């Protein structure tokens, strides 16, 4: 065993049995308190917003699209990190020791090792779904189905869990409490496999697909602009409307991918530096890397919820329903939501306006 993960560094490179090993410079109490408060705010935002996002999508059947099922999967992964990983970092910052024993040491370390592959494979599935929808739209109905999506999600989680517990099958001691610190030992081979198979390879696929999506989206955007300049009398086909919604969703996935890369590349760079020199940078740098990495768990639900207009409208409806319990005036639906919400909008049409109501329903469904 050559490498280890502790609650302070996760992918760190400390060897607990070296007597000549010395800790990096100590962090100030003010820094520890400030970072603990920041972590606590992240947990609160992540739990609240991810629960709201999941509840909003599940509350309406029309929102349970393939894309939003994958978003729910991403939200579940963020909840796992916010509940099972970050609290241990807060406790370590405040106490300076790990008092929970070997079982919780192994549990918290494996929860973190689970977070990387689960997040990256969720983004991979999201990118693949958008890729097929835009580049191969006629094959989407055949391959992109809810049943296939749920199977793919199950396989991704099973693989991530299996990879996280691989170190436990080692013949050597894996979980060590040394100097009142939690150390989860694993080899450099495991570390390189984790970074190669569960980060570099899927990220290369994700980036390649997004480059193709960007090229296709730019081409179709120019085509739609050209059609609009020909004349306002030309009716926009539903397929073009659906394509525009798919491109918008693809842009959201691209932003999520960018956020993922920024958050994880920071931590992985520190991991690489730790493998080269274990005490070359101050301890607070590692914690700042963890803070950047953990920021995504709070930003993901905010980002997707704000960019998806149908989810925003449904959140507003749920908010008004809750506030109407205390103030009946909130029960009135604003005209902006009523005009776009298909369930309300269609009540203002008679039988002769089915085409119009269908068009509105089609748009709201395709946005997800």
From TrEMBL:
GO terms for cellular component: plasma membrane. SUPFAM superfamilies: Family A G protein-coupled receptor-like. It is found in: Cell membrane. The chain crosses the membrane at residues 37-58, 70-90, 110-128, 149-170, 190-217, 252-272, 284-306. Pfam families: 7tm_1 (PF00001). The keyword Glycoprotein does not apply. This is G-protein coupled receptors family 1 profile domain-containing protein. Residues 49-304 form the G-protein coupled receptors family 1 profile domain. PROSITE patterns: G_PROTEIN_RECEP_F1_1 (PS00237), G_PROTEIN_RECEP_F1_2 (PS50262). InterPro entries: GPCR_Rhodpsn, GPCR_Rhodpsn_7TM, TAAR. Belongs to the G-protein coupled receptor 1 family. Its main location: membrane. It is a multi-pass membrane protein. One of its GO terms (molecular function) is G protein-coupled receptor activity.
């Amino acid at each position: 065993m050559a490498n280890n993960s502790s609650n302070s560094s996760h992918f760190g490179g400390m060897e607990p049995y070296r007597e000549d090993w010395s800790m990096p410079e100590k962090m100030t109490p003010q820094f520890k308190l400030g970072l603990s408060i920041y972590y606590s705010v992240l947990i609160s935002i992540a739990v609240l917003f991810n629960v709201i996002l999941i509840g909003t999508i599940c509350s309406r059947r029309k929102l349970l699209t393939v894309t939003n099922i994958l978003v729910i999967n991403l939200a579940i992964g963020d909840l796992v990190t916010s509940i099972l990983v970050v609290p241990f970092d807060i406790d370590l910052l405040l106490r300076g020791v790990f008092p929970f024993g070997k079982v919780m040491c192994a549990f918290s370390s494996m929860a973190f090792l689970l977070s990387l592959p689960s997040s990256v494979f969720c983004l991979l599935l999201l990118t693949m779904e958008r890729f097929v929808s835009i580049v191969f739209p006629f094959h989407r109905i055949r391959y992109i189905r809810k049943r296939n999506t749920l199977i793919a999600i199950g396989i991704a989680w099973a693989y991530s869990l299996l990879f996280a517990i691989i170190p436990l099958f080692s013949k050597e001691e894996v979980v060590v409490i040394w100097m009142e610190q939690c150390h989860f030992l694993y080899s450099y081979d495991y570390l390189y496999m984790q970074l190669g198979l569960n980060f570099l390879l899927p990220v290369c696929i994700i980036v390649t697909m997004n480059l193709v999506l960007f090229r296709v989206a730019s081409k179709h955007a120019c085509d739609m602009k050209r059609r609009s300049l020909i004349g306002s009398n030309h009716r926009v086909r539903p397929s073009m409307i659906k394509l525009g919604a798919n491109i918008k969703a693809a842009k959201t996935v691209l932003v999520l991918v960018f956020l993922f890369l920024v958050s994880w590349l920071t931590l992985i760079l520190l991991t690489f530096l730790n493998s080269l020199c274990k005490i070359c940078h101050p301890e607070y740098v590692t914690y700042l890397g963890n803070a950047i990495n953990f920021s995504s768990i709070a930003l993901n639900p905010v980002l997707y919820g704000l960019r998806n207009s149908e989810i925003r409208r449904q959140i507003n409806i749920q908010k008004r329903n809750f506030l109407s319990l205390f103030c009946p005036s909130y029960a009135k639906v604003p005209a902006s939501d009523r005009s776009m919400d298909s369930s309300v909008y269609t009540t203002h049409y008679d039988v002769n306006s089915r085409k119009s109501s269908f068009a509105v329903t089609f748009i709201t469904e395709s946005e997800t």
